[in-house]
Amino acid sequence: MSVESLRNKAQEYWVANFDDGPYSNLIQAQYLVGKSGRTWEQILQSPRTLRTLITADDLSNDSSSTFKHTWAAAAGRCTAFCLRIVRKLQEYDSPSFDFKIYDLRGHRVARCAKTGILIDSSSAVGVLVLRDGADWTMLEEEVNHPKWKWDGSESKFKTDAQGLKTSADALSFQAAMTQCLTEIRDKFEPLCLFRSFSGGRAHFHAMIKWVPSSKQLVLLESLETKVKTTIKFDKDGTTETEKECIQFVEQFITSHGGLEGDKQWKFGQPNYRAKDIHETIWTTAKKIWGLPRIVT
Which domain of life is it from (predicted)? Predict the structure, then answer.
């Protein structure tokens, strides 16, 4: 099978994964709470305790189905995105692929050593073919001018904003997901970023993010405009302000979540959907902080 045929199949899986589930750490956050042996109430009150309750060794040695679910489920960050597509391609035609996972200082990508196919959730056009050599593969139209290169057995990624990131050491599925979960553990802010793929381009829309340190839920209309609304949970909230907040969140997703927003919010198995985990946090926040109200 030609590289182009394999790239087309990879693109099919890339687009399906991008549209089906949001960029989100909610499933991973739920896993960490369960892994810690503590309740949501305890973790929201003191998120930093996760650093002492869960070590990297605890994660790297976890062979449970719940650990696998952190990347095999419908929503995740860059790591889960890569791992799901790699697994699908291996099931489709295993002999044609030899994928390696690389950590580029907080961002994971997968590259096939046989075909050069690159799986990167941050690509604006989906799958790229990254040949061996010194030439950069660049998306000219993009803000930050992202570039990819495979040179001298190193995976390289560069943007105007973040500079150059390189990685020569390939990671196992377990090691890659351990790195991802460690990052979420260290900055525990459950979030959901809606996205869609249309017209041959990737689009990012609204984001909903919990900030336990300030007892807030932040709703960002767009990553570009930074227009946001903040919902505060405290003693000044009432049952009426909570109704207003619930309606606001629902309308926010419909208005700013993009073409796939409503679907992504409810996509997946019960108790693992973004909506379900968000509602668990919402109920917990009311219990420990107070009722919600819109403050900005």
Answer: Eukaryota
